[in-house]
Automatic annotation (TrEMBL):
<feature type="transmembrane region" description="Helical">
    <location>
        <begin position="66"/>
        <end position="85"/>
    </location>
</feature>
<feature type="transmembrane region" description="Helical">
    <location>
        <begin position="315"/>
        <end position="335"/>
    </location>
</feature>
<feature type="transmembrane region" description="Helical">
    <location>
        <begin position="119"/>
        <end position="145"/>
    </location>
</feature>
<feature type="transmembrane region" description="Helical">
    <location>
        <begin position="38"/>
        <end position="59"/>
    </location>
</feature>
<keyword id="KW-1133">Transmembrane helix</keyword>
<feature type="transmembrane region" description="Helical">
    <location>
        <begin position="281"/>
        <end position="303"/>
    </location>
</feature>
<dbReference type="InterPro" id="IPR014226">
    <property type="entry name" value="Spore_IM_YlbJ"/>
</dbReference>
<dbReference type="InterPro" id="IPR011642">
    <property type="entry name" value="Gate_dom"/>
</dbReference>
<feature type="transmembrane region" description="Helical">
    <location>
        <begin position="224"/>
        <end position="244"/>
    </location>
</feature>
<keyword id="KW-0472">Membrane</keyword>
<keyword id="KW-0812">Transmembrane</keyword>
<dbReference type="Pfam" id="PF07670">
    <property type="entry name" value="Gate"/>
</dbReference>
<protein>
    <submittedName>
        <fullName>Sporulation integral membrane protein YlbJ</fullName>
    </submittedName>
</protein>
<feature type="domain" description="Nucleoside transporter/FeoB GTPase Gate">
    <location>
        <begin position="31"/>
        <end position="129"/>
    </location>
</feature>
<feature type="transmembrane region" description="Helical">
    <location>
        <begin position="368"/>
        <end position="388"/>
    </location>
</feature>
<feature type="transmembrane region" description="Helical">
    <location>
        <begin position="196"/>
        <end position="218"/>
    </location>
</feature>
Amino acid sequence: MSATILALSLMVFPKESFEASMRGLTMWWEVVFPSLLPFFIVSEFLIGFGVVSFLGSILEPLMRPLFRVPGVGGFVWAMGLASGYPAGAKLTARLRQENKLTRFEAERLVSFTNSSNPLFIFGAIAVGFFHNPALGIILAAAHYLGNFCVGLLMRFHGYTKEKKPTKDKNKRISLRTAFHLLHQERLKDGRPIGKILGDAVQSSVNTLLMIGGFIILFSVLNRVLSLLDITTFLSLFVTVIFAFFQLPNELSLPFISGLFEITLGGQLASQTSSATLFQQVVVTSFILAFSGFSVQAQVASILAETDIRFKPYFIARLFHGTFAAFFTVIFWQPLYVDQQVLEKGSNTIPVFLQNDTYSLFYRGWDMVLQYGSYFTLIALMVYVLLTFNKITKV
């Protein structure tokens, strides 16, 4: 029924659907693909070289007590923070397929390793939408601290159903052991460097093509829901919740849009003139943490290749959104209001509010927007050549 309504809507609103499709394609072509591809390739390359086992041995004393996941989860966590969603889901699924994680460990790990990357928070949200670099500190601190709290909370997931791992008292964590595991993993893989690199490029591009399809689909879906006034209807229910938290009704529409697609929700929230900046940032923080149904559909598609269930991940997103909004409220006074007063009353500007601190994100975001499309084109050409070479050899 839903598919039929969507198909009819595409025929009734062909121009609007095409524009929404182009908007999603542009975002994928200029931003998502060039931002994620290097991290995907590097992560696949590191996995092939056994670096994951090396880091897993080193990080075991940290990850196991905190999050009840093996040390290899530290690698996934770091790559997820650096590259953004859905890198954490992709790496978690890969490690689950290699039996480096149990199902419950994988469900715990994927719940807190999918987050927005700093470049998007500082470049797109703080600077691009709000034109206020100082907001990047608050959004990033609330986002990543909220994700950390989700990891601590999800450590209890499957506690009664999972078999407790037996502790090996003779096992010692040392660099020598870690390098030995790296060497054994490299021998086990057995592929030459060229083969590893080629497979990494092909696997990464395949994943990004899937991600691009979801971005375009949900961009069109969000536009169709708006044209059919379904978004407006859903926002009526949200106004009741917003009234309890003393948020203006005008933010309900950006909130609903953000539940489907992060970028559109953040943009609409920043343009809501009837709301205060504080209220806009709180709603945007929740949207960033919830990550939108578009990202969640990407994660669900990746997890479908394994036995990892999607439900724990979805519940974790609700917790993450709540934590992020809460920490935004807590950090607003000390990290924004007080610092703005200090900046106006003194010529001395705090270190983390100086332009030099943000210049890295400025330059990075501008370079992505300026050269991202060329990078995507070159990468796709390399992918076609590798695929053609692989076919001709068969």
